[in-house]
Design brief:
Blueprint: E1 2-8, H1 15-26, E2 32-36, H2 43-47, H3 56-61, E3 71-72, E4 86-89, H4 97-100, H5 104-115, E5 121-128, H6 132-135, E6 142-148, H7 153-175, H8 180-185, H9 189-203, H10 213-224, H11 228-238, E7 241-249, H12 252-270, E8 276-284, H13 287-294, H14 299-302, H15 309-319, H16 346-363, H17 368-383, H18 401-410
Parallel strand pairs: 1-5, 1-6, 2-4, 2-5, 6-7, 7-8
Antiparallel strand pairs: 3-4
The structure holds adenosine-5'-triphosphate (ATP) and magnesium ion.
């Protein structure tokens, strides 16, 4: 099973539109469940014109198992039964406070239930922004898919702040007071205290001495030398991956200037220059998509132009965009410089611009349906032959579990 989250820094960027179309396309490869975790807006059930008999209300209040709350498409919306492997779990019909804003206990309950689902893909449509109901569902070693658009620059900045939040969540879990890591790595209580204080200072954007995690790393390296703790943080950064999809894409220049560049620069400057930032593709602005949303019939069912994904995959291979910007970079042993230098996003930006150009020259004439198909195909390419924790994950983690996993996976 692969769990992929879809999230955004601010609302209205097209998360739900993307999540639905992405999940539908993935379901051509195997059983796919889309879960509406933006539980206040019931947006998925409003965008899919099917009768919902059970939703998250029934899971939380009525004791149903999560898999009993799955709704599948019926013959009126999918007459040819082309999406038989697709199902969704709707949010409650109306705002119900303790289900709309669930607490830690409910989150844990849901996390266990999601981990227990039997599906090939699980797609989570999350709330906009960052609260515990978002952050607890994000994977630990990558961002899942972040959606932003050149039309809403504030959402792009907020999306890059999410990258920071996910990384800090992980670091805090690792270095929490009393963490077994201290005895494991032979670190005393005083240093533990100091380290947590430093993590706070790096996270504080007003603190200019520790600009980002690269500067923390250099400081730690100075203090500890080639200590495992230094390697652990370096490794965490080096292998962390950020994925994004540009919605309402509008030509290379505008999308680069108004979305990709500020996103990359903010991450490199405020988080770390070591992080891998990956463009999964874009979606054009489309009246048809909007109509499909409004009429609650998903795009691939909207008319009969749907082409089989394997055909698209072949077409994409021919266009040579399948792996564009997705090939794993060789990352050898992590080296940490002796001195901290101001981060330079130049190399990352060059790569992003190259990917944008390549994708654009090769796909500028494809349809809105193919936009979603090619993002799906590129995701499938990532699923193959990579570690599960590279893109999404095969399970969600409750607070505290990450340490166990970290040690297991590091071995
Ligand atoms: N590529 C697109 N072309 C045209 N309209 C779009 C496109 N993407 C999204 N929209 C429209 O923009 C609006 C917001 O989209 P959507 O609901 O998917 O965003 P969201 O990020 O899930 O919002 P929220 O944060 O409120 O959940 C909808 O009316 C949708 O139809
Ligand atoms: Mg939404």
């Amino acid at each position: 099973m692969r769990i992929i989250t879809v999230s955004s820094g601010k609302g209205g960027v097209g998360k739900t539109s993307f999540a639905i179309n992405y999940a539908l396309n993935l379901s051509r490869q195997g059983k796919t469940i889309l879960i509406d975790l933006d539980t206040g807006t019931s947006s998925i059930r409003n965008t899919l014109n099917v009768q919902v008999t059970r939703d998250l209300y029934h899971f939380f209040r009525k004791g149903y198992r999560l898999d009993e709350c799955i709704t599948t498409l019926d013959r009126t919306i999918d007459p040819k039964n082309r999406f038989a492997h697709f199902g969704f779990i709707a949010g409650p019909k109306r705002m119900i406070d303790d289900i709309t804003n669930f607490n830690q206990e409910r989150r844990n309950l849901l996390i266990d239930a999601i981990n227990g689902l039997k599906a090939k893909y699980v797609v989570l449509d999350l709330k906009a922004g960052l609260d515990a109901n978002v952050i607890d569902f994000l994977p630990y070693s990558n961002t899942g898919i972040l959606v932003f658009t050149p039309h809403l620059p504030a959402a792009t900045m907020a999306a890059s702040d999410m990258v920071k939040a996910v990384l800090f969540k992980k670091l805090r879990q690792i270095f929490i007071k009393g963490s077994p890591i201290y005895s494991e790595l032979g670190i005393d209580a005083m240093f533990c205290y100091r380290l947590n204080e430093l993590i706070d200072r790096v996270e504080d954007v007003y603190d200019e001495e520790f600009e980002n995690l690269d500067s923390l790393l250099v400081w730690l390296h100075e203090q500890l030398g080639e200590h495992r703790v230094v390697q652990l943080i370096a490794h965490t950064l080096e292998y962390f991956k950020t994925y994004f999809v540009l919605n309402m894409f509008n030509e290379v220049r505008e999308s680069y200037d108004k979305a990709v560049q500020p996103f990359v620069e903010n991450i490199v400057r405020n988080v770390s220059s070591r992080i891998n930032i990956i463009n999964l593709g874009w979606i054009i602005k489309s009246e048809k998509l909007h109509q499909a949303n409004c009429q609650a019939v998903p795009l691939p069912l909207y008319d009969d132009v749907f082409k089989k994904p394997d055909k698209t995959a072949r077409a994409l291979q021919k266009l040579d965009i399948m792996a564009q910007g997705l090939r794993a970079e060789k990352r050898g042993r992590v080296t940490i410089p002796k001195e901290y230098t101001k981060p330079d996003p130049g190399r990352q930006l060059e790569r992003q611009l190259e990917t944008l150009h390549q994708l654009y020259t090769r796909t500028r004439n494809i349809s809105i349906e193919q936009n979603f198909e090619y993002i799906t195909e590129r995701s499938l390419y990532l699923f193959q032959g990579r570690r599960v924790s590279d893109f999404g994950d095969n399970r969600l983690f409750k607070p505290g579990e990450i340490l166990e996993v970290l040690f297991q996976r590091a071995e």
